[in-house]
Amino acid sequence: MLPYLAAAGHNLYTKSAHVYLSHMHDIETKYPEVHAHFMQGHHVVRRSDRLWAGLSTDLAIEQVLMRSVKSTGGLTRGRGMGEAQRTQWLLAMPTCAEYNNVMQYVTGAGYKSSDQHVESTGTRKEKDHRDILILNAFLKDRNPFTEDKSLRNTETGMVANEDANTDKAKEIGDKIIVSMSEQSVTNFSFKKKNFAITLDAKRPSNTIITQTPHVDPQLMFQRLTTAGQENLNDMTELFKYELSSFPSSMFESNRLLRQATKSTLADAIWNSGKCHATELPTSDITHVIDGGSLLHRVPWTKGHTFSELCSKYVDLVKKNFRTPTVVLDGYNNHSIKDITHIRHNKGIVSNTVTFTKSMLLRVKKETFLANDANKQRFVLLLKETLIENGIEAVQATDDADLLIVQTAVDKSDTKEVVVFGEDTDLLVLLIHHAKQNLKRIYFTSDKQATTKANKIWDISKTKSLIGEDLCYQLPFIHAITGCDTTSRLFGISNNLR
């Protein structure tokens, strides 16, 4: 066990066990009588004549000495335990133990009621059988003996990242043990970098660039100008050089694109004239739902199966939407919205989770969805569940905004369409792609607003209000002023002029 204790970072156990093992190797020469008893089979402690009652010495200490300390009336219950009390207790325990054994013998009382070993009782056998059935059911959908050789947590399905190396614990521990040889116990110190890396080891935050040192352009500018005032006659020489490692007009200090307040553009259009509807139509309509927005509508509870989570989404869609079509995002490859996804994850880095329909959720929703592989597998499961329940569902190869708009425009050939989403990108694309000669398209949010009513956009009215030329140019205006795929240029507002 020494290599595994060392690899796991149990430093005190590693030192103590190493010293103990060294002493035991010399027991034949230093303590021949003890060695002779060991060789005769007297290497366990027997506190009774019951069958299979031999105990290792450390377990005997726990059952006798430590029980008397920690049980009711012991030294650690309601009183201090200094060196004097500890010494008195240790010296008194052998005598007290003798008295205890004699009293049990005289009275016929003891901890056990029979000589039968506790593991041989019918009750224990029934409990063991139930435990086997529970374990069998647990492993039914979590078979660890698959062709997949990746390290993973059998309980949660969490797959370890490439840095985890607990499968090499023996090799890692052996190296630590070798480094301990010929070293003083008191002086030797363990280094955390030499321990095995587990699945839960701290991972770096999710940033675009981790190797490049952070440079604050404002601080650098202040320092250079301060130094230049003393050493340079002409300060203009300072401004001939780039003062930061990235263009600060387009990127924030964390090297993410400057985030735009996209709602400013939508508010400007809304306030420019009458482009809204007083209410949504109730007959001869179809609903197109943004699956990315829908994904965050249902709270996840630990202990529910993934199949139950998908059923919650089905119930939500059936309850709130008529003839719905759910358009889901795809997460197979990198998309143009990777920067936005990183910002939404707030630096959370999650491992891949291998799960099935009947597997219980064991991690937080935010942690689970921070991994694109997890999100893709769940979206596929959700899509399958929606279709099985008679709900039309489609999935894009990457970002679904364009597919949502195309689906809405296609369905507006025969029916009026209500698009449910929250992203200004959807509004801009709808205004750009919608045709005036088709049925009306409405855009609103399915989010339950607590302070004010949701806006209901009439796309036909909006196109008429701002004009065909501006509708054609609107995606460019939205991109240049900042959206999910482009940076907000410093100093440029999203107001529509």
From TrEMBL:
Please report the name of this protein according to its UniProt entry.
Answer: Uncharacterized protein
Q: Which organism is it from?
A: Patella caerulea (Rayed Mediterranean limpet)
